[in-house]
Amino acid sequence: MKNISLIFVLILFTAGLRAQDYTNTNTDAPETFKYNWEGTDYTMQKYFIVFLKEGPVRNQSEEEASKIQSEHLAYLADLYKKEIIVLNGPGGDGGEIKGFSLYAVATKEKAIELASNDPAVKAGRLIVEALPWWLAKGSIVK
């Protein structure tokens, strides 16, 4: 519960940050800044959470859908091994959001580009939506 409270406070804090608070000048790396909360130093990093939503083309045969799913999982595993994706998993309620991935990339456009190369997205089974998300490094991701 303390981690959830910390993350919530840090997210609220970041909403009011000014541009000069950022320390990362590498345009290929995610934005970061230092933050001290209750005597502990944190490095905040901007991630992009990509929601994988139900796509318009879901009429594949069971065999084809299974093949696409296997390719989808292999693609995500490869991005995870490369530490481009740092967290991901399926949605659990059977709703429109079928899963999500947390991308450690510099821009929303890069996250969308990578997510759009997913075989399930290319096949139309999934569509993507990306949003920025600030987290303290090491809080729930590496």
Could you please describe the fold and organization of this structure?
The chain is of the alpha+beta class. Residues 1-26 have low confidence and may be disordered. The radius of gyration is 17 Å and the shape is elongated. Strands 1, 2, 3, 4 and 5 form a 5-stranded antiparallel beta sheet that branches. A hairpin with a 6-residue loop joins strand 3 and strand 4. The two termini are 19 Å apart. The chain has one domain: Dimeric alpha+beta barrel (Alpha-Beta Plaits). It is built from 4 helices and 5 strands; from the N terminus they run αββαββααβ.
What does this entry show, briefly?
The protein is α+β, with helices and mostly antiparallel strands. The protein is built from four helices and five strands, in the order αββαββααβ.
User: What is the structural class?
Assistant: alpha+beta
Order of helices and strands: HEEHEEHHE
Average pLDDT confidence is: 83
Rounded to the nearest angstrom, the radius of gyration is: 17 Å
Number of helices: 4
User: What is the number of strand segments?
Assistant: 5
Q: Any idea of the CATH class?
A: Alpha Beta
Overall 3D geometry?
A: elongated
Give the proportion of residues in helices. Answer: 25-40%
What is the third-level CATH name, the topology?
Alpha-Beta Plaits
How do the helices and strands line up, and which of them pair or pack?
Elements: H1 2-14, E1 32-37, E2 40-54, H2 62-81, E3 85-90, E4 97-103, H3 108-116, H4 119-122, E5 126-136
Considering the chains and any ligands shown, give keywords for the structure:
Alpha-Beta Plaits; single chain; alpha+beta; elongated; disordered N terminus
